[in-house]
Specification:
Helices cover about 55% and strands about 10% of the residues. It is α+β, with helices and mostly antiparallel strands and about 775 residues long. A hairpin with a 5-residue loop joins strand 1 and strand 2. The protein is globular, with a radius of gyration of 33 Å.
């Protein structure tokens, strides 16, 4: 057999196969489409709650027959001459079937049958399209010439970090629920969303650990427009982190290892907390950008744009969350001063101008008044400084994390020193200072309130170590440090049941959650909100008489349930400035609430739950609340409710001028007797405690770490109550005569007979003075 005959023997069957390929694909697709109709499409609940699997023929009426007709039409197109006409019919039938199946995807949580049907419909259309092109060799050549350069371009695009990050962000989706919630943790996001929706101004009127754009960090569906913005922001921040990691890592590790490492890091960030991984991600992205810029400084206009962009990011971050903003602003300032020593003044002015201007623009876009900016800055500083004492906490079993944190910081520092060896002096100093600021910020964020917050520290430090992988010689040390940080993160999370092993690597579940969240917000937002609002109303359980007492009046929810303002939109919410009492961290914030209660703008009603009532948490505000509010009703806890509720109505003050009852000079650890008021029983007794101020060393420790020696007050050998040092001289209510008090369990009185002050983890014997006062009461409170 000659070579030519052998070539012909091979080419003829191959040519025949190519000619039949389109029809084979369409025929197979039609068969798969018909078979998919017999498989499970949806699972419904029966009358007894059991799950019932249904195929398309059982569940749908009309859609199933339309798909059968289209599949038969596609099979008929296989034999319809000429080839082009039959191919066009198959393309039309396949696309129509794909559209019908797609409508089911948008409406239901579909099962494998729908996936098979969609695949079959796509094959029907694909086979027809192939035959349309193959029937005309000239058209085939033209398509090939058109496709070749575009496929090369598409390949380059597909390898870009930004594109590679998209599927990874979906497979590590950080949003675990869209559902609004209650309680301290759930009502914080609720209050932020409600304040943004209702236009309640920040500054002196609304104070929290987040700013006016803080609602963006909580992708909860309280209101559809705000929920959509929050979902978009969370998506973009998660994608930006993963894209930044891939861009850095691929330079020294290659694309595949970079994708794997970025996926694992993204999964860790997504599991830091059910809410707000974005604060960690925002600072991590800023840090990576700073290190990249200092290693390869941009020039000319690119330098100006980079410095201005850093200022804009800082201004935005300051309005999302103040502590995050401080870190991002500090990182940007370091970069602006170190990136180009010869243009340092220009960069500093450009950075400062962009920072101030962007802050003002974002502030105005959030609907805030320029005159409220000083109050916002002042009270943000109160939150940041007060957190070191009021928020200090140590969860049992986490002592080993301090050693792990020290090792991770040491590893990150060594990586920074090794990576920057040989850099110019200013960029190297800037990179080392940036790492120190970043590590310090996240040590404070993770270990002041030492519980699950430490997970944020470990993920942030993993990203910082990986950022230095932009320098090839530091890639091994950086990767080892990141692995150590992620290992500590995993052990800390698993050891305290913050997540399970299956929560870390779950690409399928994450993809489904992403699809479900996007569909819910885009297509079913109003229905979802209605159901969630009904669920939360049942949880709060305000009964008819309570609602009648507060309708038509301004109302505040005490001490923390701000989500009730969303659950009951018919009520006129007028919160205290620190709308969740546990966040009145220092005396100035406590006084802010007290002054508001004493003003003409005070809420006419207060709905007070029986959970979390701590009279020493905000003692000045509590004293004003007792003096100025009468109990209108104390409702028992409803069967489905989480709380019992007290309804308070504002009236004239019942409290007269205080008179001294006596002073007792003693020491911490010693018990003193509370003096009795006059015999006719119409006086309230409170105490001011002197001598509990923080020393200079404690203030320094508070700024660098946290207050380790917290103050506690014990009343009648009961559970010690935390007392923030600068609130000790506030009026601490101890006793109220029963006939002047609110009803149980909402009483203002502690019925104190004995009092003791202790400093945690410190020997007794510190001098203190108790100044007792009696306040005459003009009328009963209930």
């Amino acid at each position: 057999m000659t070579a030519q005959s052998l070539r012909n023997a091979v080419d003829r069957p191959l040519d025949l196969a190519l000619r039949l390929l389109g029809r084979a694909i369409s025929a197979g697709g039609a068969v798969v489409l018909l078979g998919g109709l017999e498989l499970t499409w949806i699972v419904v609940r029966g009358p007894d709650g059991e799950e019932i699997a249904q195929d398309a023929l059982e569940h749908y009426h009309g859609l199933d027959m339309a798909l059968v007709a289209l599949a038969c039409l596609a099979l008929a197109g296989l034999a319809l001459p000429p080839l082009r006409r039959g191919a066009a019919l198959r393309v039309a039938a396949g696309l129509a079937a794909l559209g019908l199946v797609g409508s089911a995807f948008l409406s239901y949580d579909v099962r494998p049958g729908a996936h098979y049907a969609a695949f079959g419909a796509a094959c029907v259309a694909l086979g027809g399209a192939y035959d349309l092109i193959a029937a005309d060799p000239v058209r085939w050549d033209a398509l090939d010439a058109w496709l070749e350069p575009r496929l090369r371009t598409l390949g380059r695009l597909a390898r870009r970090s930004a594109v590679l990050a998209v599927p990874l962000a979906v497979m590590t989706w950080p949003v675990y629920t869209l559902a609004p919630g209650g309680g301290t943790d759930g009502s914080g996001p609720g209050g932020l969303h409600a304040a943004a929706w209702l236009g309640i101004p920040f500054g002196d009127d609304f104070v929290f650990t987040y700013g006016p754009l803080g609602f963006l960090t909580f992708a909860r569906l309280y209101y559809v427009p705000l929920g959509a913005l929050a979902l978009l922001y969370v998506s973009v921040m998660h994608w930006a982190l993963i894209a930044a990691l891939i861009a850095v890592l691929r330079r020294v590790w290659g694309v595949v290892p970079a994708v794997v490492i970025a996926y694992l890091a993204g999964a860790a960030f997504a599991n830091t907390t059910p809410d707000d991984p974005t604060s960690t991600e925002l600072t991590a992205v800023a840090f990576i950008a700073v290190i990249v810029a200092l290693r390869t400084p941009p020039r000319g206009r690119a330098l100006d744009l980079a410095v201005a962009g850093a200022g804009v990011l800082g201004g935005f971050a300051a309005l999302v969350k103040p502590n995050t903003g401080v870190t991002v602003i500090a990182l940007g300032a370091v970069a602006a001063l170190a990136v180009a020593p010869a243009r340092r003044l220009r960069c500093a002015v450009l950075y400062g101008g962009a920072l101030v201007l962007s802050f003002l623009v974002f502030w105005l876009l959030a609907g805030e008044s320029p005159g409220a900016i000083p109050g916002y800055v002042l009270h943000a500083s109160d939150i940041l400084s007060g957190y070191g004492e009021a928020g200090a906490h140590e969860e049992a079993g986490r002592g080993w994390e301090y050693l792990a944190a020290a090792l991770v910081i040491a590893g990150g520092g060594a990586t920074a020193v090794w990576a920057t060896r040989g850099w110019a002096r200013a960029p190297r100093a800037g990179a080392l200072l940036a790492f120190a600021l970043f590590a310090f910020g996240w040590y404070k964020g993770g270990f002041v309130h030492h519980d699950g917050h430490s997970l944020h520290f470990f993920t942030a430090m993993a990203a910082a170590a990986l950022a230095f992988s932009v320098v090839p010689r530091a890639r091994i040390l950086g990767l080892a440090t990141a692995v150590a940080a992620l290992a500590a993160f995993t052990v800390a999370g698993l050891g305290t049941n913050l997540f399970a092993v299956g929560d870390l690597i779950r690409p399928g579940i994450s993809r489904h959650d992403f699809q479900d969240d996007v569909e819910t917000v885009a297509l079913h937002g109003s229905a979802y909100i209605a159901r969630a609002r009904a669920d939360l109303r049942r949880s709060y359980g305000f009964d008819g008489p309570t609602l009648r007492l507060v309708r038509g009046h301004t109302v505040h929810f005490e001490p923390q349930e701000a989500s009730a303002a969303w659950a009951y939109p018919e009520l006129h919410w007028r919160p205290l400035p620190v709308f969740q009492t546990p966040f009145a961290f220092d005396h100035r914030l406590d006084l802010l609430n007290a002054d508001f209660l004493a003003s003409a703008r005070a809420p006419e009603r207060i709905l007070r739950s029986d959970e979390g009532l701590e009279p020493f948490e905000a003692p000045t505000a509590f004293f004003q609340m007792y003096c100025r509010y009468d109990e209108l009703r104390a409702a028992p806890q409803q069967p489905a409710s989480r709380y019992a509720w007290q309804t308070l109505g504002r009236g004239p003050s019942r409290c007269g001028a205080p008179r001294p009852l006596g002073s007792v000079a003693t020491r911490t650890g010693a018990t003193v007797a509370v003096p009795r008021a006059r015999a006719r029983g119409d006086e309230l007794v409170f105490v001011r405690i002197h001598g509990l101020e923080l020393s200079l060393g404690e203030k320094l420790r508070k700024a660098l770490d946290k207050v380790r020696h917290q103050r506690f007050v014990t009343v009648d050998d009961d559970t010690p109550r935390l007392l923030v040092s600068d609130k000790a001289t506030s009026p601490l209510v101890l006793a109220v005569p029963a006939r002047f008090d609110w009803s149980r369990p909402f009483t203002a009185s502690l019925d104190a007979r004995r009092l003791r002050v202790d400093v945690d983890r410190a020997p007794p014997g510190r001098p203190v003075r108790f100044d007792f006062f009696a306040v005459p009461l003009s009328r009963p409170a209930a």
